[in-house]
Here is the input.
Amino acid sequence: MRQTRTRRVDYAALAEWRYQLRLLISRRETAARAAGIEPQQYVLLLQLKGLQDGGAVTIGKLAERLQVQHHSAVELVDRLVERRMVARRRDDRDRRQVVVTLRPAGEAVLRRLALYSLAELRTEAPSLLATLRRLVRSANGRGR
Here is the structure.
């Protein structure tokens, strides 16, 4: 195997980036629980809303976006159907596919959590962007 040029790794920036991402996710998880839903349910609602304009949203598509197994996405959808936050039906064009849609209760919870998330980003964004810039400079070999 041919050796490529050795680059300096900015471990401090990588560690800081991972820490900031974890804080961001942790705060959203706490907010989701406070709103009465599990964090993965919030992510499913968010992905569902974000994908709606692209046409029918299937359980398979949600599984991909959540990076979970198909059966795990089915379980998440089942729980949200029970709470009347989403609805599901067979796709009109391909009866093998199950399409998921947001219901008003899911939309209301999602809106509250999304507004919270956007407000939090106002304070989180500057440090996230600074760390990301540092990582990009490091990856491009320009150091700090």
In short: The longest strand covers residues 86-90. The CA atoms of residues 64 and 70 lie 8 Å apart. The chain has a mean pLDDT of 91. The chain has one domain: 11-139.
